[in-house]
Amino acid sequence: MRLGRLAAPGAMMISLLVLVGCGGGDGNPASSSASALSQASPQALAQQQAQPQAANAPYTDPVPYSPHANDGLAASQVAEKAAVMHYQWKSDKTTINYTTTTGHLTAADASGKPEATMSYVAYTAPGTNGKPRPLTFVYNGGPGSSSIWLRLGSFAPTRVATPDPLLTNWPNYPLVDNAESLIDTTDMVFIDPPGTGLSEAILPFTNQQFWGCDSDVDIMRDFIIRYLASNNRGSSPLYLYGESYGTPRTDMLALALETAGVQLTGIVLQSSILNYFADSIEATAIFGTKDGLVLDTDTLAGYYPGYAEVAAYFRQVSPPLLDQGLFALQSEIFATGQYNHFQKYAETWTLSQFGLPGYFDPPVYPSTRTLQSWEWPSSLTLHALQAYFDPNSFGLALVPGSTIGRYDGRVVLLNSDPRLQTDGDPSDILISQPFTTALATQMPDYLGYTAPNATYQPLNDEIINVWDFSHNGEALPDTLPDLLGAIQLNPKLKVLAENGYHDLATPFFTTEKQLARLQTVPRLNPNLQVNFFQGGHMIYLDDVARPKMKSDLVDYYRDQPIPLALSLWTLPAPWRDEAPAGTPTATAQAAATQ
Amino acid sequence: MSPISRLLHIVPVVVVLGAVTGSAQAATQAVAPVTLPKGNHGVDGPFFPGKRAAPVLPSTGTQLQQQAQQRIDARMGGNSVLNNGASITKAQAQSNGLGFIAQHFDQIDTARSGRVSLNDVKQYLQKQQGQ
User: Three-state DSSP class for A86?
Assistant: First the structure.
């Protein structure tokens, strides 16, 4: 059943497509040339050859975009202008001539009232077979993050090459051609939400009005509608790709787009946090009352398999690891089997992640004898098991004297490293400064775009403090109902959830348990696939993972089953406390009918 | 000459043009340094509100379905033009951003009244789920 965990032996089928699809438009301000390209018939190619319109058109944008909460631009100041550049991407078998379009479009509400001028980068290519090319809208999360992390790291035609999970040559990483680009499979539009990148509200709206779960989804929807209209892409198969907070955003945005009449073909949820309540460390461990600890055992068990993968990376397993997928399965079985035992330690474990294990009660730790009894079923060393329950957090205890990463537990720095003083996550340090440095030259040199009167915001920390997390009457977003709603409006919606084994920010087991809630909905048979890779939150940084992700994504776009991916029915059942009393679980229902 | 080989033929010209115009853009773009609130949670979060929330047990089964229906209703005009049993025409659906209703209007409007209510939409969706 759990074949999805097994590494596909030698299955590196990098399906190299030969000029798949067609109809790529771009956000070209000179829209006549864009439409000529978008036809991409032999005649259009000939036309392209005959006319000088393929010439690059850099753009210097004079607008002084502001990221601040109370700011907005006058409608007279904004313009839908963009830099348009032409390049070539090559893989072993394929050559794609593609266009980058970098600039702004104006998102407006249904009545046409302008709301925000949104910065974006589109990578588009003409096709050959008369069918419109797929179009994927891509964004990061935060909330407060621009889309540069995915744009510079994942599947664009060029990328910043990192030594993940090492820090060799930090902070200078080269910008390289991306052999794993999806430009042979889909056009990509990377979007910066208002207050990030160079996106800003249009008066009378101000940036902060878009800093909430629901208003953010509205403005992202309105941008996408504008992009489709402006580039005549309504007939293209449409996809959303979100990472981190970008995954609850995707669930909510999919429902918003479907109700607005924009039919999606698929959504990709990478490194998910679909239900904010599911993390008792971050969301609900209220100081002052123990009520917040109600989901602590789920949280302890949810982090465990990812932690175990990280321990295995540091060779703290016995016998040595054979396969990450098998080990994940073993760790999930272990954590599920020990769930009742874990309950005793869950309060202490949760509070230990703050270094305050005895905040409410005398701490309760598993005895050495208990830990020893877990060595065989878990395959972890005694030290690794002890470190998981360490009073100063597992992140500081696993590798003595060092801090392991939150985004990627394999990235490690000595505690004395001065970089940890401003950023406690070695795996965040890995990309934070290098990517922002790369952006400063990539925008003018490659994208042909500069905004000399504005400063690009990779992450706007002003947003985080004031974001309105409430959604549907609850304090935090639980977006499984939104995902279910989107599937009900569009039962054919293709859903793909990608997970990194070494991600300790959004652990894969928790994501499986959340998606498994859909098992309890009668007659639901969603087109859901779940896949796993070595690597952290930004899975694509890993040079082993990225080609596999690419191969799986090509299958996904081509409507081919992803080899070894889990489906809804091969996910582990949801936690027992996730069903209200008296509701039989899917497993119980299945057993009753046998 | 095939379209592809024609394309290949013109590519060097495009690339050279790119190099020329690219070098004309010598400036760098100002990019703000990343500063993390309290020094953690990274460039992409996920960030959580400073104030922790009371836990809500994850829904399953019927409750999950009801929540999904509430969210569809809210997005489908249930809090605005379709609240309290109000009905709208196809044109009104379109002008209020309810493209789903406009696109499926004739299937939703089984009574052929020219107007649909949220209840009509729900019945249509239930029929779709049953298929």
Answer: strand
Q: What is the pLDDT of residues A420-476, one digit of tens each?
A: 999 999 999 999 999 999 999 999 999 999 999 999 999 999 999 899 999 999 999
CA end-to-end span of chain A, whole Å? Answer: 19
Task: Please state, as a whole number, how many other Cβ atoms lie within 10 Å of the Cβ of residue B112.
Answer: 6
Contact B42/A432, CB-based, under 8 Å?
Answer: yes
Do the Cβ atoms of A389 and A398 come closer than 8 Å?
A: no
Q: Is A273 helix (H, G, I), strand (E, B) or coil?
A: coil
Closest approach of B81 to chain A, Cα-based (Å): 13
Instruction: Give me the percent of chain A exceeding a pLDDT of 90.
Output: 82
| Separation between Cα atoms, residue A512 and residue A503, nearest integer Å | 14
Q: Residues A549, A554, A559, A563: is their CA dihedral positive or negative?
A: negative
pLDDT tens, residue by residue, A508-567 = 999 999 999 999 999 999 999 999 999 999 999 999 999 999 999 999 999 999 999 999
Interface-testing mutation among B11, B38, B43, with chain A (most A C-beta atoms within 10 A): B43
**pTM of the complete model:** 0.88
CA A582, CA A576: separation in Å to the nearest integer?
11
* Bridge partners of residue A531, in order along the sequence: A498
Residues 6+ apart with CB under 8 A from A476: A276, A277, A283, A469, A470, B48, B49, B53, B56
What value of ipTM does the predicted structure carry?
0.85
Q: Which of A250, A259, A460, A537 to mutate to test the interface with B (most CBs of B within 10 A)?
A: A259
Of residues A191, A110, A5, the one with CA closest to residue B81? A110
